[in-house]
Amino acid sequence: MRFAIHLGSLAPIVPLLLLAGPAQATFHFMEIEKIIGGVGGDPTAQAIQLKMRTLSQQFLASQARLVVSDATGSNPITLINFASNVVGGTCREILIASASFPSKTTPAAVPDYTLTSLIPASYLAAGSLEFQGVVGPVTYWRVSWGGGSYTGPGTVSVANDADGNANPPFGSTLPSSGAQALEKQTACPTASTNNAADYAINSGPVTVTNNAGTSFTVNVLPPGTVPALSPLGLVGLAATLALVSMPLLSRLVRRALAPRSLTQDSPGRATLGQVPWLLRVATTLKGPTALCLQVA
User: Fold this and answer.
1) What is the 3-state secondary structure (H, E, C) of 123-148?
2) HEC states along 45-86?
3) Which of 26, 101, 153, 280 has its CA 20 to 30 A from that of 289?
């Protein structure tokens, strides 16, 4: 028995067959999981964590980049053009960080890529971060923040967002003053719906993970730094010091009030012996028999 296949009947599925080939098995199915705009008020300590939403999405070299725009979706800045690949795997992480970011983590972070530009401080209040394909370019994932202050587009590929629109944006600024991140709340590989629903600022301290699976915890202050005390903390410290120092202070007061004998050490001058170092008193008696008492 022989079967005849008419080429015309394949026409509707040819685009799907092409899409299922190299196009999908490259880098398109990617999500932006975490964004750190700064650590402890330092806007130079930034990090972005991506996750591959399926297999074979590790081929970033010369094909993908991260771009950030301002509150109007204008003035784009390329944060990195990926020049190498990573190891693939469904929901496997990719860590991109600034040069100063590792000093803010325990242990010191080992990112997979280093940002060549930073998210400008003026973009932290409202802006948009895009994971783009260089050709086109095509935005495959977008995270916008700033609530009503962000007035730019929400355009994103339907490969990762069913309606192709990631707006409305997340309702607040990008975190930079503590040890927090703007983080996707739905588990990988869940697709994007909109940034307001999909993202929230975690309670911190945030943990980031590189492609090798090693995790790093963000510190508000570098290790070994003594943190500033709040007013309540200062009160507690003062009370503790008072309790500790009270016995010593009591001894010093008793010594100061104890009777002392005068000793002559030079003509016309007498000194009080054994008076505590914290007291220094001078008394001068005028007249022919001037007597100078010095507490030393």
Assistant:
1) HCCCEEEEEEECCCCEEEEEEEECHH
2) CCEEEEEECCCCCCCCCCCEEEEEECCCCCCCEEEEECCCCC
3) 280
- Sign for the CA dihedral angle at 233, 234, 238, 239 comes to negative
pLDDT in tens, 34-88: 999 999 999 999 999 999 999 999 999 999 999 999 999 999 999 999 999 999 9
Q: What is the DSSP annotation of 3-35?
A: ----GGGGGGGHHHHHIIIIITTTT-SEEEEEE
Helix (H, G, I), strand (E, B) or coil at 150: coil
The values of phi and psi at residue 188, to 5°, are -60, 140
Q: What Rg value do the Cα atoms of the chain yield, rounded?
A: 34
pTM: 0.71
What kind of fold does domain 25-218 have according to CATH?
A: Immunoglobulin-like (2.60.40)
**Cβ atoms 109, 164 nearer than 8 A:** no
- Amino acid symbol at 201: I
Q: How far apart are CA 218 and CA 85, in angstroms?
A: 25
Residues in the chain: 296
Task: Return the domain boundaries, the chain.
Answer: 25-218, 230-257, 260-296
Contact, 41 vs 138, CB < 8 A?
Answer: no
Q: How far is Cα 73 from Cα 80, in angstroms, rounded to an integer?
A: 18
- List pLDDT tens digits, range 116-134: 999 999 999 999 999 999 9
